[in-house]
Every structure is written in structure tokens, then in C-alpha cells.
Amino acid sequence: MKFSKRRRGKLTKSLLMIFQAKGLLMDTALKFESVGDTFSFFIHIFIKYRGVEKVVIEPKVITNNKITYENLKVHFDVEFIDGSLSDVMIKARDYIHKGHKLLTHPLMGSIKPNETPYKSVAISLKPEVSVDFNSVMLIENSIETSNKLIRNKAPRQWPQSVLEDFSIIDYDLIKNALI
């Protein structure tokens, strides 16, 4: 479907306002990229807006957080890892090496890997033909950073109430990145 220059301008302006309100940036190709101190993710979105069909990269979530698993499995493909934060990142890396793209930054949020036992990472549901170099570099650097932090200061044994808080924070971070 073709739109007039004026209509495209209005559509672009409307979408730009919506995505700026959600903290996303938009270029003229409708490629959205959000980059911050604690997270970055790349997602190509083609939105169904007044007859304009667009494509969304469907996510797969890898998590060791039962709250995230239980709440997101209804909407997304979620793989539960019965293991550590490092195990989640290694599993995500394995998928990325097979052609999946990283959709959320593995170290998003302000809680350091040696402070929380929970981690949820979103990758593309379907692999691409080639490996995404940016995703590989990001996951490898995140694993290295996590391991360094954990080596320098071992994770504490938190009371159950604090663990529940960490679990809710992890769920909230991934949910807001995806929805």
C-alpha cells in the first residue's frame, strides 16, 4: 500500500511520538534501537497501523526465574533453566552461536550479576542464516563481566523476601522490554 508524502509524514510523526514515550528511538526506515547505560536491544518492528503490515521479531525468553517463566509462558516461548545466572547467559550464547539475535541486553538493570541469582534474556525465536556479530560480542562481553564480578565478590545468601524482590525486578525488566 502506498501513502502520500503527507500521510507518511503524519504516520511517522505519530509513531515517533508513541515510541519516544516508551523510550525508543526511530529512524526513517522504522528500525527501532534503544541504547542506554544498562541495556540495549535491537528490534525491527513493522506495526499494523491503519492497514500497514509490519514484521515483529518474535522473542524467545531464557530465564532461571520461575515468576518470569510462569507469567510469560502464556505470551511467549519461554525456556526455563534450572541453574545459575551464568547458566542462563551460556544458554543464550549457545542460541546466538546458532544464528539467533539478542533482543535484550544480558546485563540490563542496575543489579549486578553478583547481587542477584535471577536472569532473563530475550533472543529471537527463529535463527537467521548467519550469526549476528553484535549479539555474539554483547553476550560474550556480558558473560565475561558477570564472571569477573562473581569472582571478585561472591553472591550473598539472601533471605527469601529479598530473593522474591530480585525475582520480581527481573520479571519486570524483561516484561517491560518485551511488552
TrEMBL record:
InterPro entries: GrdX-like (IPR047735)
UniProt-recorded name of the protein: Gylcine reductase operon protein GrdX
Lineage summary: Bacteria, Bacillati, Bacillota, Clostridia, Eubacteriales
Gene label: grdX
